[in-house]
Design a protein that fits this description.
Elements (H helix, E strand, L loop, with lengths): L9 H10 L30 H12 L9 E2 L14 H5 L2 H4 L11 H18 L3 E2 L6 H16 L3 E5 L4 H11 L5 E5 L2 H7 L6 E6 L9 H10 L3 E6 L17 E5 L15 E5 L12 E5 L5 E5 L22 H39 L3 E3 L8 E6 L3 H10 L2 E2 L2 E3 L4 E5 L6 H18 L1
Parallel strand pairs: 1-13, 3-4, 3-5, 5-6, 6-7
Antiparallel strand pairs: 2-8, 7-8, 9-10, 11-12, 12-15, 14-15
Helix pairs in contact: 5-10, 6-7, 10-12
């Protein structure tokens, strides 16, 4: 029976199904597993009006759990950072919220200027020479960095550290699969040295890594230069308020996910990725870049420049086929950095580091946990537990906490602490964890 708000006639619906080679509308959903299909009607009265249905749906929605109802200690790439209240009203302005693509600079100066200011802020943050207008996320930024290195070095082999976020590694593998790129994994500096016996296009490292440990960027940068390959670093932007930026050590490419910079968790997205390089690579940087110039009257103006993607140059010479960016989310990052400033970012980063260390030491002190990976941490850390981690998380959830991520492959408990967590919340969490462990050990 046709839906009253969708004006397709039965004959039109049949034509569409025939066109895509299906016999019925049910076949449209054949890819969805039967176990997750909703096979009954919604529990609503047949004659419910809009007011009653809205009330019912709001009641059901109120049963959801989020970081407003529970205190969160989960991270693994998406973090419960504070979002300054000034950001939402600024990005909601129509000139930002409805703008799409700034191909015509004469009518897109506001959008182009905001992107240029974003690029400047990211370069200052990473101490790199040039930034693009943003990427989709941290994972795609890392893939594009690896792709650029292969194009630049003309070597179809790369080395990734195994401590990089596993989803980032999968994105890199997927993106480079058509090129049959040899992707080698280094597990530590010793294994890296053995892999450097053969030429490679780049070495990629995440710091802080997936397990929260801060890595030696300076040493890896030197090794990369000694062996003639590019150095790529995926970083947490908040950590750069406290740690020396990769550009200070001569990094070739710096990427990362900008979610901590004023973006909500958003169920995993949308966020934005950032991508910075040295001047030597600026003509190969993927995506959009906005430059500043002057018009015939000597006034400042902003234009797209240094285009290296396949829409602007010959396909065989293009470094990327990316044709968009997350400018609205990137604008959130620009506003965030402008609002908190250098001192504010330093304080936020310091709070994260101090509170994470406090929680780590206190949990180990209970006697039920031990350090999973040695080394300095920033805001995240992995522990080995004497108690079943899934059971621990379930019981914590029932007591108002979202526990750390259970890394089932290693059987680690990965916990994240942001500046939002108070010491009282940390102490309450520690107390509940200890009680649960004593009750169930």
């Amino acid at each position: 029976m046709p839906h009253k708000y969708i004006p397709n006639q039965e004959s039109e619906r049949k034509t569409m199904l025939d066109k895509i080679g299906l016999n019925s509308e049910d076949e449209l959903f054949s890819c969805i597993p039967e176990g997750v299909k909703f096979k009954r009607e919604l529990a609503l009265e047949k004659k419910s009006n809009e007011i009653e249905v809205t009330k019912r749906l709001k009641h059901l929605a109120s049963e959801n759990v989020d970081t407003c109802t529970h205190i969160s200690f989960i991270g693994a790439g998406v973090y419960d950072h504070h979002v300054p209240s000034v950001i939402d009203p600024i990005v909601s302005r129509s000139e930002f919220y409805t703008s799409y693509t700034p191909y015509q600079p004469e009518i897109s100066q506001g959008t182009l200027q905001s992107i240029f200011e974003y690029q400047t802020a990211i370069c200052n943050l990473t101490n790199m020479d040039i930034s693009n207008a943003s990427m989709y996320d941290g994972a795609s930024a890392l893939y594009e960095a690896c792709s650029l290195s292969i194009s630049h070095k003309k070597i179809n082999r790369i080395i990734l550290f195994s401590s990089i976020h596993p989803e980032y590694i999968e994105v890199v593998k997927t993106g480079l699969a058509p090129h049959k790129t040899r992707i080698e994994l280094a597990f530590d500096m010793d294994s890296l040295l053995s892999l450097l016996s053969e030429p490679c296009a780049c070495i990629a490292l995440q710091s802080p890594d997936f397990y929260g440990n801060i890595q030696d960027i300076e040493r890896l940068t030197k090794l990369a230069k000694e062996h003639g390959c590019l150095s790529i670093f995926s970083v947490d932007p908040i950590s750069l308020g406290l740690l020396e930026p990769p550009g200070s050590y001569g990094a070739d490419i710096v990427v990362g996910d900008g979610q901590p910079l004023g973006c909500y968790m958003n169920l995993g997205g949308p966020h934005f990725g950032f991508f910075c390089t040295s001047k030597d690579l600026m003509r190969k940087i993927p995506g959009r870049i906005v430059g500043k110039t002057t018009d015939i009257d000597g006034k400042d103006g902003y234009v797209l420049t240094l285009q290296a993607r396949e829409q602007h140059i010959r396909r065989e010479k293009a470094s990327s086929n990316i044709c968009s960016n997350h400018s609205l989310c990137a604008l959130r990052g620009l506003i965030y950095l402008s609002v908190v400033g250098r001192e504010g970012l330093f304080q936020i980063a310091s709070d994260c580091a101090a509170k994470a260390q406090y929680l780590k030491e206190a949990l180990i002190h209970t006697g039920f946990f031990e350090e999973a990976r040695k080394g300095p941490i920033f805001k995240e850390f992995a522990l080995k537990s004497k108690l079943d981690i899934s059971l621990l998380n379930d019981k914590l959830f029932n007591r108002g906490f979202i526990g750390g991520l259970h890394l089932k492959k290693e059987d680690y408990w990965l916990l994240a602490v942001t500046e939002k967590r108070t010491y009282k919340e940390l102490d309450d969490f520690i107390g509940e964890v200890e009680r649960i462990c004593k009750e169930n050990h």
